[in-house]
């Protein structure tokens, strides 16, 4: 921890908050304070905005190859420091070291991917239908951006936004979640080492999000907001963007259905369930929330899933052999407890887990519930914890209707051995992504995002850079 920056990163320099304020960073495995970091206020936001605005014009003129090579160097540094970054992430967020190392690799890949996309920004050329003008299309950076990232994937959510912004030629202000600021500060130090010019990336850690973000969005100089977080906060930010018509991309909440048909390979289905539910202790917007299992296989599926979940080892993420770390904080754990209690009171049976352990830290055991009533609160709430809620179905049309009966539409999971059914059901699900016989859909080379109230736009893949680029059309008379 001693080498990790704890100040704000503004204009290429490490600085204290203007009013000297700091905020604690807690270890969710123990409840102890790891360190204190600068707690930015409105004046710090103004300083960061000024740095980003001043750097924008020159950065936009920088050759794509230069931007590409900066990202490539940063990718290599991240890979070299995998263990260091993984330990830092586990300390502030709680996930087991094996998962943290996996996230470091995932995060690094966004920089490698967008280093390759930076040199492939293309426009277009052609004669217009009336023959009078030639059309020249060019693409240019949208301008200074505000990037807001969540605590559950503190490194990868940063690189998924910073990578395309750098590749497109945009300057940025990054506001990480107050629970996990250290990964973002470490990332800023890596990018500075990789040669990123001063002012292109600015990092403001803060517990005063409204004081920092609202003036930036309403001020007119920030031209792009990229946000990952809850739908509730996303709606508020969209309203703040309206006055100055800030371009937005939103990766919001999920309520993922996990559908197991009668012809599913149950080994694949249980393996997929373990990934879709237990990745990041269930604290992921892609986590399977509602398990719809055909009545003919529900008993066997529930038995196998409970056996696998019950075998997982819960404990501090730094301890060898641990599979499940703590939840992010006591508020998050209390929410999970309340949802499980509500389901049980409405008739659900607990196959495994369901009881909060005594002692320090924010631990909650992997839990499987069956006979879950459709009016249980966890059916229309993002659980964000290690709880699998199983419901039954008999008919394909019925399960699709129930799966789509939610305002969210991020991801769905379908397990069946029938190709026709797989394509038919995937096409009818109202989601932005489908995992077919797999519990993992996230990949830097694929477009990530949802429909309905799960968000706007896409991150990653070839289209990820589009969120940070504008078109300009130039009409040239044909002579």
Overview of the molecule:
- The chain has 479 residues and is of the alpha/beta class.
- The chain has 13 helices and 22 strands.
- The chain folds into two domains: 8-252 and 454-475, Aldehyde Dehydrogenase, Chain A, domain 1 (3-Layer(aba) Sandwich), CATH 3.40.605.10; 256-443, 3-Layer(aba) Sandwich (Aldehyde Dehydrogenase, Chain A, domain 2).
- The strands form six sheets. Strands 14-15-16-13-12-18-19 form a seven-stranded mixed sheet, with helices on both faces. It has a six-stranded mixed sheet with strand order 9-8-7-10-11-21, sandwiched between helices. A three-stranded antiparallel sheet has the order 5-6-22, with no helix packed on it.
- Helix 3 (82-93) crosses helix 4, helix 4 (97-117) runs parallel beside helix 5 and helix 9 (266-278) crosses helix 10.
- The termini are far apart.
- The model has no long low-confidence stretch (mean pLDDT 97).
- InterPro entries: Ald_DH/histidinol_DH (IPR016161), Ald_DH_C (IPR016163), Ald_DH_CS_GLU (IPR029510), Ald_DH_N (IPR016162), Aldehyde_DH_dom (IPR015590), Aldehyde_DH_Superfamily (IPR050740).
Q: Could you name the key traits of this structure?
A:
single chain; 479 residues; alpha/beta; Aldehyde Dehydrogenase, Chain A, domain 1; Aldehyde Dehydrogenase, Chain A, domain 2; 2 domains; seven-stranded mixed sheet; six-stranded mixed sheet; globular
